[in-house]
Structures are given as C-alpha cells and as structure tokens.
Amino acid sequence: GQQLNQSPQSMFIQEGEDVSMNCTSSSIFNTWLWYKQDPGEGPVLLIALYKAGELTSNGRLTAQFGITRKDSFLNISASIPSDVGIYFCAGQLESTSYGKLTFGQGTILTVHP
Amino acid sequence: NAGVTQTPKFRVLKTGQSMTLLCAQDMNHEYMYWYRQDPGMGLRLIHYSVGEGTTAKGEVPDGYNVSRLKKQNFLLGLESAAPSQTSVYFCASRRLTEINYGYTFGSGTRLTVV
Description:
The complex is a heterodimer. Chain A contains no helices and 11 strands.
C-alpha cells in the first residue's frame, strides 16, 4: 500500500536546539497533517496543511506543504523537555475517500535537559 | 467530555483466543477508524466506518472483523488471535464535515498474543 517515508527515525537533542523532520511520498497528497504522540496516549493533531507551498505555525512549531505536494516538513524551535514523544506525518491522497489517512513511520524525539 | 474511549487498555491473549475491543465516542462523529501501531511502521488502517451500519476494509484487514451497530460505538474483533496481532490498537473518529481532517484518537489498547 501507499507509504510515507518519514525521517529521521529518531533524534537525540539538547534542550534549546532546533529540530527538523520531514516526510516524502511517491504520490500526491491533498492534505498533510502532523501529529504528536505522548507515551501511553493516542496521537494529537499539531498542524494541518491544505495547499501546496503553505507554511503554517503553531507556537514553536512550523510546518510546510511541499510545492510538489509529495512532501512536508516540521520544524520545532528551541526544544524543551516536554517536546519528547513520537511525531507522525500523515497525508490524505486525492483519490482517497472518507478521510482515510496514510501515516509515516514516526520520528522518536528525545530531548536532554 | 470523554472524547474517544477505548476498552480495555491492556490485554494478554493466548493464540487462538478471541476478543473484542470497544471504541466509544461521544462527539456524534460520523467516521470511525481502527488502526494498529507497530514499531517502525507508523499507524496502519485496519477497518473503518462512515456511518452506523456500514464498515469497510482498510490496509491490513485480515484476521479482524468490525461492527458499528450504533453510531457512537465501533467494535474490533479478533476471532482467533495470532502472535502477529500483538500490537497497540488505536481507534479514531472524525466529523463528516471536519475541515482540518484531524482525527480524535483514543488512548489505545495494548494487546499481547502469546
């Protein structure tokens, strides 16, 4: 089935550093989403992107919808310990109905104080 | 204001046993989904439902059945559990007219099949 390639798989950073992760696909998506999952919880939506080239921020988080509609990235600035978790990208294909999402493999973020 | 509630939170099954995972949402959402999460593989769609009485297969439906007899509940069944079904299962729901496509997820059910 359709897959999103998310990288990196894991990151170990110091508090205060900036973080960048991205997702790529061989197919065109009409919506890109970024989720965060805390340990023992379900994913929570961080940012949603709807148009190619769109750049959206949510506090220290910034995400962009790639011009080709086949990629997206998420940046976290000035990381803090509570940023720890798994970050997932997700996309909705143009041909997909009923809101079905395809998820990336996830990026495990560890922040050292 | 419970959102999406999954029961049970943890379960250990023996190979060949059956069980049902329950997902309940109190937001009057039309769409509901069951995903499984495995290390390094993200979330993969098992089955989904677009309304009461309707279900459809997702990416990895084999070995699972679902039912949606009531709008607020979406049940995931394993008729004969296998070790390959050891995973964390997430239910999610979404409103039909939700603009941002954001799902509301439950907190997951961790299932171990031995």
